[in-house]
Design goal:
The chain contains eight helices and six strands, in the order E-E-H-H-H-E-H-H-E-H-E-H-H-E. With 235 residues, it is an alpha/beta fold. Helix 1 packs antiparallel against helix 3, helix 3 packs parallel to helix 8 and helix 7 crosses helix 8.
């Protein structure tokens, strides 16, 4: 069995919306967990970060919450982030990224589907395809979101009727219902957060300095070996 850890970009964004999935088998999950524990241990020893700290992109880069001991240490934050991305790539995990141009969505459709639902089904279509080619079922663990029961019900309906669009899928490999858990319980969900934060930043943020732009490019290059699919859908 495979496990797909799914996380969304920040829901207050009005122009673009992103969802990521980190897909692992049991060996890759073990290696990912160990790699992330090593990163937290490094951050604790080097910067005094709480050993219970979660690995979230925004919090690391902005030195918020458990990452406040690193305040002002931007290079240190980038180093921690790159260590996380290396741990993802080294584990053998595969990254799937899907985005929706929300502005274009509303321009094209008078009553569009929810952007989260669109991005979620798009990413699960690709995950389902990946699992089918490997003859595996896939358990989906998603981060807690508003309306999760409705999203789970819609995805289960797709397994009976097929997803909309020209690449319709019955999601035959996905185990239903989709499970929703708090990210504190799974390094896999934290890995999905790190991936989607970086992809969102690349697509939505104009960096204010050459150094910041270089750091983002380097982080993306670190993640690339794990990348299986990335797309921003413009309706």
């Amino acid at each position: 069995m495979l496990v797909a850890f799914v996380d969304e970009s920040y829901p207050n964004l009005k122009d673009k919306y992103f969802v990521s999935a980190v897909v692992v088998d049991m060996v890759a999950l073990f290696d990912l967990n160990q790699g992330f524990r090593d990163v937290v241990s490094y951050a604790n020893n080097a910067f005094g970060v709480d050993p219970a700290a979660e690995l979230h992109g925004h919090e690391i880069m902005q030195q918020r919450k458990h990452w406040r001991p690193m305040a002002g240490k931007v290079r240190g934050a980038v180093k921690v982030y790159k260590k996380c991305l290396s741990a993802i790539a080294d584990s053998g995990a595969k990254i799937f990224l899907e985005g929706v141009d929300v502005t274009r969505l509303h321009q094209r459709y008078s009553r569009p589907d929810d952007p989260h639902e669109i991005a979620l089904r798009h990413v699960l279509e690709r995950v389902d395809e990946y699992a089918r080619h490997r003859g595996r079922k896939v358990l989906v663990v998603a981060d807690v979101v508003p309306g999760q029961a409705n999203h789970a019900a819609i995805l289960e309906l797709f397994s009976k009727r097929g997803t909309p669009g020209y690449r319709s899928s019955m999601l035959t490999q996905v185990i239903h219902p989709v499970r929703f858990d708090d990210s504190s319980l799974h390094f896999g969900l934290q890995a999905a957060d790190l991936a989607v934060y970086l992809y969102r930043r690349m697509n939505c943020v104009t960096e204010t300095s050459p150094a910041a732009e270089k750091s983002v490019r380097e982080m993306w290059g670190t993640l690339l070996p794990a990348l299986h699919h990335a797309r921003l859908w413009v309706p």
